[in-house]
Amino acid sequence: MSSILEVQNVVKQYGDYTALNNVSLSVPKGSIYGLLGPNGAGKTSLIRIINQITMPDSGSILLDGEPLQINHIGHIGYMPEERGLYKTMKVGEQCLYLAQLKGLSKTEAKKQLEYWFEKLNIQGWWNKKIQELSKGMAQKVQFIVTVLHKPKLLILDEPFSGFDPVNANIIKDEIIELNKNGTSIIFSTHRMESVEEMCDYIALIHKSNKLLDGKINDIKKKFRTNTYQVGILSTNVEGLMYDLSQKFTMKQTYFKSLNDELKLEINLGNHTPNELLHTLSQRGQITHFVENIPTINDIFIKTVTNQ
Amino acid sequence: MNKLLLIIKREFIAKVRNKSFIVMTFLSPVLFIGIGVFVGYLSQMKSEQKKIAIHDETGKFVSKFKTDSEYKFINLSTLDIKVIKDSIIKEHYDGLLQIPNISNNLLLAKKIEYISNESPSVMFVSKLENTIAKELTNENFKAQELDTVKINKAKADVNISLAKATGEASVKGLNELKIGIGGAFGYLIMMFIVIYGNMVMRSVIEEKTTRIIEVIISSVKPFQLMMGKIIGTSLAGIIQFLIWAFLGLTALFILSSVFGLQVGATSGLEAEKAMKTAHAVIGSDIKLVLTELFDLPIATIIIAFIIYFIGGYFLYSSFYAAIGAAVDNETDSQQFLLPIIMPLILGVYIGFFTVMNDPHGTIATTFSFIPLTSPIVMLMRIPFGVPWWQIMLSILILFGTFFLVVWFASKIYRIGILMYGKKPSWKEMYKWLRY
Fold it and tell me: Do B211 and A14 touch (CB under 8 A)?
């Protein structure tokens, strides 16, 4: 699959401080790509370089196979983490202005605006000033401004912050729909649930370095611990423990359930799940059997703290 | 449409639509005239009549003081001086003029006293002095056996009338008029630079605090945004000035038609005829002033004002924009603003003190070339007539400096708009120049 965005060996320094240290990554076309990292990791620096707000000291960026150039601005939609609109300007005028700055003609911008205003059900806001709107309402306008010019690549920095759950869901659905229609999306966020839910790919940046990147499932497989959570009702607990200890390592664990069963976390070692199931079924009633799949949150914390 | 044009348009509309702009544009001329009229009215107003007691032991002077609407002179020469002094303390009288009985006039002139609770005005004291001096002089003449009638006849009264080489009559006080007009325009340009420069700064800070800046510079270059902002705001300033100029000229034409002066037809002959048929001396004086006004290089002044406004404003607003980008809020901007205001104030001082005395002297000429002061100083010099090459050179230097400054300013601007949270030092801003 070809990439919508290719970041190659990008270095950015501010004085003595290195914001990005030889970072390379590739965002596949049509994907939702999660850009993760703690505060101050260099995410915003990278996003600003992609948006041509700043220039890299070295390295190159390809958008859709071409080196980044000024007219690519119209192909990228960027919603910064710190949202901002002119407070005293009317919603309609403001959107028109920002769309025209992205290179849309006035008539085209108007057409798109009408479409989006109707879609998000805010037709009545055209002549309202931003300062008259609530924060959540302003966020909707901000989202429209970001996607109005039909960008190929959408960069959203913490897209759900500031939305109430209802509006966050509306925006999430819009993002997914845009993605289905071919827009590639980069998410920069700390909110791991939304990454888990929406992203196909992730990259983790920490202290100016990229620590890992790739398909989310591949990364999860890499971080797999081969452990299973098991619940079993047994009359002979000692016998069961003896049998298990012959082949596996285990420890007691806790999870919510309806029964008062024995709860274990069992590491398979180099045995198969079937062998474990076999051993368990001989000694009691299995109520729970599930693989411990690492969450992005686990991976994030593990990778960052291991550094 | 070109992005720069879009930004200019937005900034212009944002400024012009602002309520304070509309109010300023139409209210401030009214306010100015209103204040002028009010001050004029106040100075015309008669204050309460003051009662002045006179204790004249010689009896020679008391009759020379004539009571008028301002001062009432009361002869209290027969009363004891202590009693009068008491009544002054009790504020029955505003003042006491005490003339002792000394026959030697030279000595007497040194011994006259004026006693009051409040210190009298300079005008009043000199009025008293003149009255007594006149009487004493007359006595001296008589003592020397001089014929006062002949002396009065021999006195010459000279009133030099001013004229230009072209032969037109001129009024006295023309230089004052030129200084007034030059000063007004110079001051106006300073006000415009400060007001509109501040607008640029505030608008930069606004974009920073509302955080829209990142959205915009992901669409346009910071330099485009800065220039668009500066140009758009300057257009608003020019519009405001043109409206004022239009209102002012209209008022001038109305005034001139009221006094029956035909603009453009003020040939020497007609002016002379007008002089001869003048209904009143005052009327003809006003006519002359108006004629002089129309003879001033008004077109040059207005064009020069616009050019110097653009140049000076561009120069200064680049500083303002850089400062706006460097700080997070207006309070932090103060320490950076002082060095900007200083040359402007210097320009106004030089204009009012040096240009008035010697419009084409070394100091005035030098400062009309230095770009930070030239918009003000040169504009004050123009009514006195400045050679074309000087104006051209000064404008050239001004715009050359602007391009240099805007280059530096854009570097600070570019970095500053993305910096939050800390107040930068001069050293830090210098570092930004080299990023």
Answer: no
Name the residue facing A73 among B1, B207, B219 (closest C-beta). Answer: B219
In a domain, A67, yes or no: yes
Tell me the pLDDT band of B264, cut-offs 50, 70 and 90.
very low
Q: Same structural domain for residues A216 and A235?
A: no
- Best of B204, B209, B218, B430 to substitute, by most chain A Cβ atoms within 10 angstroms, is B218
Residue A174 sits in a domain of what CATH number? 3.40.50.300
- SS3 of residue A60 by DSSP: strand
* pLDDT tens digits, one per residue of B385-414: 788 888 899 999 999 999 899 888 888 888
Please state the separation of Cα B100 from the chain's center in Å: 47
Residue A262 belongs to a domain with what CATH number?
A: 3.30.70.260
CA B201 to CA B413: how far, in whole Å? 11
Same domain, residue pair A115 and A145: yes
Q: Is B213 on the interface with A (CB under 8 A)?
A: yes
Residue pointed to by tokens 């590639």: A184
- C-alpha distances (whole Å) from A17 to each of A14, A21, A39, B433 are 5, 10, 15, 17
Domain of A274?
A: 226-291
Q: Are residues A157 and A173 in the same domain?
A: yes
Res B434 pLDDT > 90: no
Q: By percentage, how much of chain B surpasses pLDDT 90? A: 7
Predicted confidence at residue B284, as pLDDT, reads 57
Residues A206 and A263 in one domain: no
**Residues A164, A175: contact at Cβ < 8 Å?**
no
Give B427's contacts in chain A (Cβ within 8 Å).
none
A34 in Cβ contact with A187 (< 8 Å): yes
**DSSP class of A264:** E
Residue B161 pLDDT = 66
More confidently predicted of B61 and A35 = A35
Binary contact (B1, A82; C-beta < 8 A) = no
Tell me the sheet residues that pair with B393: none
pLDDT at B338 over 80: yes
Whether A15 and B220 lie within 8 Å, measured CB to CB: no
Residue ranges in B157-266 assigned as alpha helix (H): 174-209, 212-217, 222-258
Would you tell me the crossing angle of helices B174-209 and B281-295 to the nearest 10 degrees? 50
Put simply, the answer to whether A78 touches B218 (Cβ < 8 Å) is yes
Nearest residue, CB atoms, B212 vs list A14, A84, A102:
A84
Residues A193 and A238 in one domain: no
Q: How far apart are CA A157 and CA A82, in angstroms?
A: 8
Rounded to two decimals, the ipTM of the complex is 0.78
Q: What's residue B267's pLDDT?
A: 43
Tell me if chain B has a CB within 8 Å of the CB of A133: no
Q: In this structure, is residue A273 part of a structural domain? A: yes
Give me the domains of chain B, ranges plus CATH numbers: 50-151 (3.40.190.10), 171-247+282-433 (no CATH)
As a whole-number percent, the residues of chain A with pLDDT over 70 amount to 99
Q: Average pLDDT, stretch B91-112? A: 82
* Residue A195 and residue A238 in one domain: no
Q: Is B217 on the interface with A (CB under 8 A)?
A: yes
Say yes or no: A198 and A61 in one domain: yes
A101 and B212: CB-CB below 8 Å?
no
Q: Give the model's pLDDT for residue A180.
A: 93
pLDDT confidence bin for B162, thresholds 50/70/90: low
Residue A136 lies in a domain: yes
Chain B residues whose beta carbon lies within 8 Å of the beta carbon of residue A53 = 214, 217-218, 418
**Count of domains in chain A?**
2
Tell me which of B90-94, B98-102, B260-264, B304-308 is least confident: B260-264
Q: Residue A307 domain-assigned?
A: no
